[in-house]
Amino acid sequence: SPLPTAPRFQQIMGQVAAWALVALVFAGPTSRALFNVSALVLLASWLLSGRLVQHWAVARSNPIALPALLLFGVILVGMTYSEADWRDKWEHFRVYSKLPFLLLLVALLQEQKWQERCWVAFVAAMAVVVGATYLNVALGLPWSWASHSQGTVGDRSVFLDYVIQGVVSSIFVALALERVRDPMLSVRGRAAWLAAALVVGYSVLFVLIGKTGTLTLCAVLAWFVFWGGPRSARWAAGLLLGAGVVGWVWRARDLGA
């Protein structure tokens, strides 16, 4: 159900928060700096929008709310007795702090127009990332991860490291395959999404290094076959996951995590 009408200033802050979310989605695969700035603007404008109670009610009803908060709580409890260096603790806190942040995203994405804008932003970001990745194979782009001596030999990831790029690319494949199943799309439209899924999936399997992206992609494809395909084809999901594990073990000798 739509949220109640807010005063003018709060409405403006709500609009700012929504646009900051669109920028955040674009920045996820492309830029840590833009991601951090967008997240800061999003959090500040959301607090100023004055709709914390309403948004919390929306987020709390989502199935991811309890698991996300529980996992984040486990990290906080573990930090109290862990003997790890404070820098390691801070790094884990920084990474897992995005879990409760997901609840904010859920609350802000109640309107279809903002869902569509975030989807367009994510597709645009992935087009930039994957296009640059293939160009990096041929040209060795100066902004690639390995060019700054932070990557591994053979690492073709761009903007962010191969682990993050592999995971977000696999997420894109999952969403693209969902579009392929959309009966409202034309045959050409579904074929275009299938082609996009194949191009991005190929980059995960054969262009990026590491096994995290490969395993994530295998899980995505297995999910698509198991829940999206006919019952007679569901056995392929098990075979696909098995093949992914075998490939992971085979590549683990030469690739990083």
Topology overview:
Blueprint: H1 8-27, H2 32-48, H3 52-60, H4 65-81, H5 86-96, H6 98-108, H7 112-139, H8 162-180, H9 187-207, H10 212-228, H11 235-251
Structure description:
The structure is a single chain. With 257 residues, the chain is mainly α. The protein is 73% helix and 0% strand. Helix 8 (162-180) runs antiparallel to helix 9 (187-207). The model is unreliable at 147-153 (pLDDT under 50).
- Sheet/helix structural class: mainly alpha
Strand runs, count: 0
Largest sheet: none
What portion of residues belong to β-strands? under 5%
| Spans where pLDDT lies below 50 across 5 or more residues | 147-153
Query: What would the principal axes of the Cα set say about the shape?
Result: globular
The total count of helices amounts to 11
Order of helices and strands: HHHHHHHHHHH
DSSP helix fraction: over 70%
- The span between the termini is 43 Å
Please compute the radius of gyration using only Cα atoms: 20 Å
User: Can you give the mean pLDDT?
Assistant: 79
